[in-house]
Amino acid sequence: MNDIIALKTKNTNAGRAAILNASNNGLEGVITHVSFGDGNGVSYTPNGTEIALRNEVGRVAIGGGNRDAPDQVTIQGMLGDIGEHWIREIGFHLSDGTLLSVWSEQDDSGDDILLLYKKDGVPFIFAFTILLPDLPDNSVNVQVSGPTVNVVFDTEFALIIANQARITRQQWHQQEAFYAQHGHYPGGQS
């Protein structure tokens, strides 16, 4: 199966205004940080009015990336220890802190789409490509200031990651169903 997970980001009104203002002044907006949140336990569909994540649990400086096309940037980095959380939302921030774009999502039946379960002691190395079709060409770039990260992609790697994400989601649903039926998680966890 050739499923690759595509995160559908939504540009915020504040982020769009900041980029348009910079572009009108001959400048470009610069993405410097990525934030991660647990959505207060619920995924949602961003509508563009967001100015922050619902419950940010960590923020990191970008460790790699570049502008790949006039309307596309790739961002890489490493999320270290932030406690243990399900990651249900991601934010991409400009150099002044403005939230440019946000991702959180539910599937067609209203179930949460979970990016990952972040465990303490296990870094999460990430690479995201963001499409920016509703912004002027060449108006957004990336500033690298975090620990250096250089993720190399190939088809096999992408399939492995997609399958790991699918298995994690299935395990989560199984554990929640067990909890609903028995009042505790498998292994006696409550």
Uncertain segments are: none
The total domain count is 2
Counting helices, strands and paired strands, the structural category is alpha+beta
Radius of gyration from CA coordinates: 17 Å
> How much helix, percentage-wise, in residues?
10-25%
SSE string, helices as H and strands as E: EHEEEEEEEEEEH
Biggest pleated-sheet summary: 6 strands, mixed
Mean pLDDT: 87
Shape: globular
Distance between the termini: 35 Å
Strand content: 25-35%
Q: How many β-strand stretches?
A: 11
Number of helices: 2
Describe the structure.
This protein is an alpha+beta fold and 190 residues long. It has two domains: 142 residues, no CATH class; 39 residues, no CATH class. It is built from two helices and eleven strands, in the order βαββββββββββα. The strands form three sheets. Strands 1, 2, 3, 7, 8 and 11 form a six-stranded mixed β-sheet that branches. A three-stranded antiparallel β-sheet has the order 4-5-10, with no helix packed on it. The longest helix has 28 residues. The radius of gyration is 17 Å and the shape is globular. The relative contact order is 0.23. The mean pLDDT is 87.
